[in-house]
Amino acid sequence: MGSSDSGNGGNREWWRGAVIYQIYPRSFMDSNGDGIGDLPGITANLDHVAALGVDAVWVSPFFRSPMKDFGYDVSDYRAVDPIFGTLADFDAMLARMHALGLKLIIDQVLSHTSDQHAWFVESRASRDNPKADWYVWADPKPDGTPPTNWLSVFGGSAWQWDSRRRQYYLHSFLSEQPDLNFHCPAVQDALLGEVRFWCERGVDGFRFDACNHQFHDALLRDNPPASVESQGEVSTVRADNPYAMQQHLYDKSQTENLAFLENLRRLLDGYGAVALGEVGDENAPPVMAQYTELGKRLHLAYSFSLLTAEHSAKHLRHQVEALDHALAPTGGWGCWAVSNHDVPRVATRWSDGGTTDTRRDRLWLALLLALRGSASIYQGEELGLPEAEVPFELLQDPYGRAFWPEFKGRDGCRTPMPWTADAPNGGFTTGRPWLPLYGPHLPLAVERQAADAGSMLAFSQALLAWRRTQPLLRTGGIAFFDAPEPVLWFERRDGNRSLHAIFNLGSAPVSMPLPVGLVPIAGQPLASTAGVQADGEKRMLVLAPYGVFFGEPAGEKQI
What we know:
This protein is of the alpha/beta class.
């Protein structure tokens, strides 16, 4: 069976400007009391997601895995891991999403597998078996050291010695996640087969994890050092990670990947399925532009640019303009996020070291949904959840355990969703949760916010509903205007129609001259945070702390 056209009127470009809700299955809802979220738990709570008004759901990996990296180490691409359920549970989840008018995007990890995958077990057995070259194997240097200076994102060398083959194998992430050798045609064919399996099952799209890691330099050249100035600007890792000390010229983002992505696109087009690629690169915009060149490769690419700690108006403008300028020549398309399963939650990360503030949470969501591109909302973002504190003894993330205490890992954004404030474990599970429920999350539970018309959840629903009435926010072009910090001001435009978005990123009120002829757009959920006042012959826009203004030329109606 092919992909369903449920919802969006069968529009094959539904992804352009779409809002995608990310579900981290381990932490969404547990249906069987084992403390780990699962597919039936997702299915049972899809009404909450549909009520938000999003277009699609991205579900992080649920495939069979030893869970060294919590599902991003796949040991069988075609099987649901028993902790998450069965293929029948998957089919039920997909059917329920389609019944609710939601598209399903599943996470596919093609750049590497688990070391327990049958392919790797065979590959490491000898140097002359049928899959001997399915992974990246290389001899040591004469002194026994690794073949190159390449580093793992998770710390240390990217090479692991294997005593059976007396060779090193490459792992860009954990040593239990060996990199596949995409220079081997049989590997490419096998992976396209794994993607086809899920296309036949009816998924609407894929989020391809670490898709620019799919090829390495066949000559195994060393990476040069990064300049001292650039080490603090690397967006894919923290500056205290040695990975930031290299220019990653040879261990990822190789040009050979373009041809593979073209083959992948041809496969997906046969099913009407969409490709969202994760591009983790220090020079991401040009790579994203190549990968999403119109009609050739990926449909859209996922940006890390707003997942950093820096969030000044100047920085945000620079990041958005850099991607927009890169995409313009290729007709490519981006997807923005301000939170996901790998970084501290935005409510805390962009709190300037202070306490969380609902006004600020609303500002960030409004900004995310106003940018040119598609948008990804991470579970709990609609509730304004802050980053959770997880003590070291309960930490599960190997990345965090390796870099503790300067980096506490990714568990703080992965703690379970709070569903019911007064229920044990927030209604997430009847058992012991795999990560603890965070106490400050309980007052923000779904059940409590659903009953409060003034809650972050109610605002999120209203904002998404209003955005659907503003086509310029979905597909219009973007251009920025100069404004003093902390004001961010841009226009979304299509032909003669335009929409202005002005954000006060600061904690104090801001006044500025209002452009001639600009009037507030009716029905905007944050109208109370901005007002227009007369100052002699001038009209002034007054923005409250974290205020937002959406305006249009007088007499113009967005239809």
